[in-house]
Amino acid sequence: MTDTDIKKGLAGVVADYTAISKVNPETNSLLYRGYPVQELAESCSFEQVAYLLWHGELPTDDERAEFEKHERSLRPLDERTKKLISALPTSAHPMDVVRTAVSQLGTFDDTLLRPGGVTDANLNEGRAMYLLAQLPAIVAFDQRRRRGEDLVEPRDDLGYAANFLWMTFGEEPHEVVERAFNVSMILYAEHSFNASTFTARVVTSTLADVYSAVTAAIGALKGPLHGGANEAVMEALDEIKTADAAEKWLDDALAEKRKIMGFGHRVYKNGDSRVPTMKQALDTLVEHYDRRDMLELYEALETAMGERKNIKPNLDYPSGPAYNLMGFDTQTFTPLFVAARVAGWTAHIAEQLANNALIRPLSEYNGPDERHVG
Ligand SMILES: CC(=O)SCCNC(=O)CCNC(=O)[C@H](O)C(C)(C)COP(=O)(O)OP(=O)(O)OC[C@H]1O[C@@H](n2cnc3c(N)ncnc32)[C@H](O)[C@@H]1OP(=O)(O)O
Ligand SMILES: O=C([O-])CC(=O)C(=O)O
């Protein structure tokens, strides 16, 4: 075996089929079940897109109404979840809180103990809906308690995006903000075999349950090379402060061999298909909040990175400042990604189970030759 036989980071390896989404770097496009993500972001709600990812088709009006009713009924947090979150230190990262809360949700589900209960497709669909409905409440409550604010109960007269913002900020969002947030949730919902989704599929392939797979996926998403980058983008923009400081900041960072968060991608080498749509949403927020300074800073760093390295932004680059303008704390950004991506993770869990093979690659041993104790 030579070095070239080792696929470091599994780069370029096709590990399985998927019918859920197609990431095409050649055409710089992303399809969810065949639909261009830009079209879905333009005309659908996050709930419709979750339905599409799970069922393969967009819902009819009746199916949509039923789906929304079910999702809304599952929003309120259990007292045990409120107690658990309240007991966790506010010094802990919100991703650790979300991971812990999802893990606890698994302990409430006694259907897991039924014969065949872990792999039952109907039960797993119910679990996916439960997680989709609960995550906004978990994320919103955690941000509020860190600010010394009381929990805001969900509303069943609001759609997913409006209710999420309502529970976080305690007021109904302006339509511009609701729209931008809905777009971000759709763009974050699914992206084929990214690291967190692959993690969920690895865990599922052992026939472990949905909660275990999602808890593990949250762990994988936390890192700054993946979902954690949206938070890191904001930290960088906060550090740079103004557009005229961007070039020097970048030169210093590159000289220190730092990775510039929100830039580059394992699959897209010519720009991330989702960035133009999220950038448009960011533009609407810049106008709404009258924050041209943010846009200038955003564009200055993007331009400098293009000139120095010819590396383009990924989705985390525009979504970081967008979430900042909406009023989210920087550490809440990656939990927002979790809330959206759980739609994709659970679609992949179902797909993995429908045609399962244990995921277990080989390694080439390069440690000491055989030796003996004593
Ligand atoms: C939603 C998402 O999860 S999107 C990804 C979010 N992550 C980030 O934004 C983190 C910053 N980006 C990165 O670290 C990388 O671009 C990754 C991890 C996303 C992709 O990495 P890989 O496909 O493994 O590419 P790799 O890291 O090998 O980069 C190739 C070259 O480009 C450079 N490069 C890639 N991205 C960056 C970056 N953001 N800043 C500086 N240099 C970079 C690498 O240093 C490397 O240079 P070299 O060949 O001189 O060593
Ligand atoms: O596909 C990837 O490797 C990372 C990514 O953009 C995502 O998960 O949205």
TrEMBL record:
GO annotations of cellular component type: cytosol
Active site: 265, 316
Sorted UniProt keywords: Transferase, Tricarboxylic acid cycle
One Pfam family from the record: Citrate_synt
UniProt catalytic activity: oxaloacetate + acetyl-CoA + H2O = citrate + CoA + H(+)
Keyword set includes Transferase: yes
InterPro entries: 2-MeCitrate/Citrate_synth_II (IPR011278), Citrate_synth-like_lrg_a-sub (IPR016142), Citrate_synth-like_sm_a-sub (IPR016143), Citrate_synthase (IPR002020), Citrate_synthase_AS (IPR019810), Citrate_synthase_bac-typ (IPR024176), Citrate_synthase_sf (IPR036969)
One of the GO biological process terms: tricarboxylic acid cycle
Keyword Transferase on entry: yes
Pathway assignment: Carbohydrate metabolism; tricarboxylic acid cycle; isocitrate from oxaloacetate: step 1/2
A single GO molecular function term of this UniProt record: citrate synthase activity
Family named by the database record: Belongs to the citrate synthase family.
Protein's UniProt name: Citrate synthase
Organism field: Paramicrobacterium agarici
